[in-house]
UniProtKB/TrEMBL annotation:
Any one biological process term the GO annotation gives: proteasome assembly
Lineage of producing organism: Eukaryota, Metazoa, Chordata, Craniata, Vertebrata
Residues of the signal peptide: none
Keywords from the UniProt entry: Chaperone
Name recorded for this polypeptide: Proteasome assembly chaperone 2
Species whose genome carries this gene: Malurus cyaneus samueli
């Protein structure tokens, strides 16, 4: 995808670094910042990537700005890729797939049937007061950052949004990234599988060059 701009906001911790998607020495020194926009016109796809944490009490202003941009840009729909703490799942969520989805009412009308065909599992609501009152259920996405707020605001503003998320643990999340993007691809068919399996696509995605530096340099031989 081609970088087409950035999302200017004071809601994120300032950050600047080298090009994480460098393919040669010539473009490795290009600067990247905390929120950048990429485009793929052939798929009518625009991606906003957020690379730094939110400043305290800035969640809501960011959501308002983002959804205002979505509306003014006339985006047909929004897909939010997110995660939730694996260790905070309830008993029901421990069973089966670690992948979940959510649809706003406006998008449910358009694609709800497709999700049923894919046998996807909707994110469960949990008891608001566990052990005291188990009948009142609420949406709970621990570790999901702005996911819940962005979703509920989209519901109230009539924006077509889907949330795709995976229960994740701390550590090397590269396998989680592949699982989540393959999950997205099951629905949107961004790339076609070269095999019969729609989930075995890991070798067909381009891996960012920056992932080689995820855990820093190797241990120096002098240690041994």
């Amino acid at each position: 995808m081609t970088k087409v701009g950035y999302f200017y906001t004071d809601c994120l911790v300032p950050m600047v670094g080298n090009n994480p998607y460098a393919t040669a020495e010539e473009n490795s020194a290009e600067l990247s910042i905390n929120a950048e926009v990429y485009s793929l016109p052939s798929k009518k796809l625009v991606v906003l990537q957020i690379r730094s944490p939110f400043i305290k009490n800035k969640y809501r202003p960011f959501c308002e700005t983002l959804l205002s941009w979505v509306k003014s840009s006339k985006c047909a729909r929004v897909v939010l890729l997110s995660s939730s703490h694996a260790y905070q799942r309830d008993d029901e969520q421990l069973l089966g797939t670690p992948l979940r989805y959510l649809l706003t009412p406006d998008l449910e009308k358009a694609v709800g049937g497709r999700m049923q065909e894919l046998n996807w599992k909707e994110m469960e609501k949990v008891a608001a007061y566990p052990g005291i009152n188990d009948t009142d259920k609420v949406l709970h996405i621990p570790g999901g950052g702005i996911t819940k707020l962005l979703f509920t605001e989209s519901c109230s503003k009539g924006i077509q949004m889907a949330v795709l998320l995976k229960f994740c643990s701390e550590g090397d999340n590269i396998p989680d990234a592949f699982v989540l993007v393959n999950y997205l691809n099951e629905w949107l068919q961004l790339i076609k599988s070269e095999s019969n399996s729609s989930t075995d696509l890991s070798s067909q995605w381009k891996i960012p060059s920056s992932w080689r530096l995820l855990f820093g340099n190797g241990l120096p031989p002098a240690l041994f």
